[in-house]
Each structure stands twice: as C-alpha cells, then as structure tokens.
Design goal:
It comes from Cyclobacterium marinum (strain ATCC 25205 / DSM 745 / LMG 13164 / NCIMB 1802). Pathway: Carbohydrate degradation. Its EC number is 5.1.3.1. Its cofactor is Fe(2+); Zn(2+); a divalent metal cation; Co(2+). This protein has an 8-stranded parallel sheet with strand order 1-8-7-6-5-4-3-2. It has helices spanning about 15-25, 50-60, 75-80, 95-105, 150-165, 185-190, 200, 205-215; strands at about 5, 30-35, 65-70, 85-90, 110-115, 135, 170-175, 195. It has 8 helices and 8 strands. The protein is globular, with a radius of gyration of 16 Å. Helix content is about 35%, strand content about 20%. Helix 2 packs parallel to helix 3. The chain has a single domain (about 5-215), classed as Aldolase class I (TIM Barrel, Alpha-Beta Barrel). The chain is α/β, with parallel strands linked by helices and about 220 residues long. Helix 3 links the parallel strand 3 (about 65-70) and strand 4.
C-alpha cells in the first residue's frame, strides 16, 4: 500500500483557512485530518461543526474527522452532515463501542477507532475487524507539537499482527509527532496513514513537505 498522508488542519493558520485548505487540495495529500476537541475528553478545545462545514465547502480531499470528545454518539450524524468522510472515535470514550461503530456505518461513513498511548492493542481484539482504520495516538492527545512516543513502533507491530490474526482490513494511522525523521520507520513498521500537523504547517513550504512525506518510501 502506498503511503497515505493526512495533514492536520488544526495546525493551519485559521485567519487564512480557505487558503490552507486549497493548499492541501493542490498537494499530494490523501485526506484532511480534522481534530475535534471538547476540553473534557482532552484538555483543549479546538473547533466545532461550523468550522468543519466551512472546511468542507472548500475541500477536495476527504475529511478524516477525529472526535476527541465525550459522548461522541450524540454528534455522529451532525459531523456526517458537516462533511466527514471518515469518523474516528476513541475507544476510551465509548462504553458501547460496537454500537458506536455500527452507528457510523449506518451513516455510510468510514469508521475509525483511536487509542491513547497507554491503551493496549489487545483491547481492539473484538472490534478491529469491524473498522476501516485504527488510529494510534503517538502523543498524548490534546495539543500539537508534542514529542513522539517511541513505544508507538511496538504498538504498530502488535496491531499489524492482530489485523492479520483477525482477518481485518483496517489501515493503521499514526497521529502525533510525525516528521521526516520518523516517517520512513513508521511506514516500515506497518503504518499506512500518517497525520502531520505542525510539521507541515510550520514548514517553509508545506506543499513540498507533504510531498516529501508522501514519497519517503
């Protein structure tokens, strides 16, 4: 599988949001990663439905919407209507995860399940075959620009084994601290999708940075 790149719009210049979305449209990126934070599940607040709708009006790439919120079931349909092509929920936020996954499927959205750095891969045993993507957080969720957690490689290998064992077709997505320094190693470990925020948007030439990540292997 070719490397897939999902720039995180959370790190964009919000005073020039349309321009930033159009930059991603014109790049070789595969998705636009959209982080939704509620200040409860994670210690930060990002943005909500009106901003997602605004992004979607200009986006030509699918929106990969990552819900870092409590009670995500209440908002699944709203984010679907706002433009989400994939909705990713956190295992830690969903007491009835299978029900949540089925609700996302019923909206005809792709389904992702995310896990925090401390959450063991084995907890995905009974759900991994039902999802399109598993997102491994490689930093503690809530803030951009954090240092990559090295134990992530071990978790990628474990998840890859679980995917084979269960006959799942889930992609492995990595979110947090991604850069050219670790992108190749992440892909070689078994990752399929890399989310990159600050590394892309703080670079001198974001389009070229996306291209370098895309062509790293």
């Amino acid at each position: 599988m070719n490397p897939l790149i999902a720039p995180s719009i959370l790190a964009a210049d919000f005073a020039n949001l349309q321009q930033e979305v159009e930059m991603i449209n014109d790049s070789v990126a595969d998705y636009i990663h959209v982080d939704i934070m509620d200040g409860v599940f994670v210690p930060n607040i990002s943005f909500g439905l009106p901003v997602v709708e605004a992004i979607n009006r200009h986006a030509k790439k699918p929106l990969d919407v990552h819900l870092m919120i409590v009670e995500p079931d209440k908002y699944l349909e709203a984010f679907h209507k706002a433009g989400a092509a994939q909705i990713t929920v956190h295992l830690e936020a969903c007491p009835h995860l299978h029900r949540t996954v089925q609700a996302i499927k019923a909206l005809d959205c792709k389904v992702g399940v995310a896990i925090n750095p401390h959450t063991p891969i084995r907890l995905l045993q009974d759900i991994v075959k039902e999802v399109d993507t598993v997102l491994i957080m490689s930093v503690n969720p809530g803030f951009g620009g954090q240092e990559f957690i090295e134990n992530t490689y071990k978790k990628i290998h474990a998840l890859g084994e679980l995917i084979v064992e269960t006959g799942s077709h889930a992609k492995i997505e990595i979110d947090g601290g991604v850069s050219l320094a670790n992108a190749k190693k992440l892909f070689e470990a078994g990752a399929n999708v890399l989310v990159a925020g600050n590394f892309v948007f703080s670079s001198e030439n974001p389009t070229e940075t996306i291209n370098k990540l895309k062509s790293i292997v």
